[in-house]
Design a protein that fits this description.
The protein has three helices and four strands. It has helices at 9-23, 86-94, 112-123, and strands at 40-47, 50-57, 67-71, 98-102. A hairpin with a 2-residue loop joins strand 1 (40-47) and strand 2.
């Protein structure tokens, strides 16, 4: 099995590290955004009738820009893309980074392999 295939042991460990690294941020909820700071919401994946969204925040200036893929915490059972703390988002944007904050299907309705597929699709 390829290391890049969702569900492989190596891929699961890699995504688990990424999720854990961002999980501490999920404790704080982002504040409501003024109109000029609202993201562009895009659908990055469709699974059956479910559309999975991501919020895209772009820094000022012409791109291309490096991208932070922000994955909310919540132990894979709760949370959503709007949990990105406002100050953290602002620091990324001031540094010239674009920010993509994603939703993913949650457990227990979705097994780990399905969650990893969502994360892999967001990263693609």
């Amino acid at each position: 099995m390829s290391d890049r295939m969702p569900g492989s042991r190596h891929a699961a460990r890699g995504w688990a590290k990424l999720v854990l690294a961002s999980a501490w941020c999920g404790v704080l909820a982002g504040s409501p955004l003024p109109a000029e700071e609202r993201p562009q919401t895009v659908i990055y994946r469709t699974v059956g009738p479910l559309e999975i969204p991501a919020d895209v925040f772009l820094p000022t200036g012409t791109g291309p820009h490096p991208v932070v893929l922000w994955i909310h915490g919540g132990a894979l059972i709760f949370g959503d893309r709007r949990m990105l703390p406002a100050e953290q988002r602002a620091r990324y944007l001031r540094a010239g980074l674009a920010v993509v904050s994603i939703d993913y299907r949650l457990a227990p309705e979705t097994k780990l392999a399905g969650i990893l597929e969502d994360l892999d699709a967001a990263h693609a």
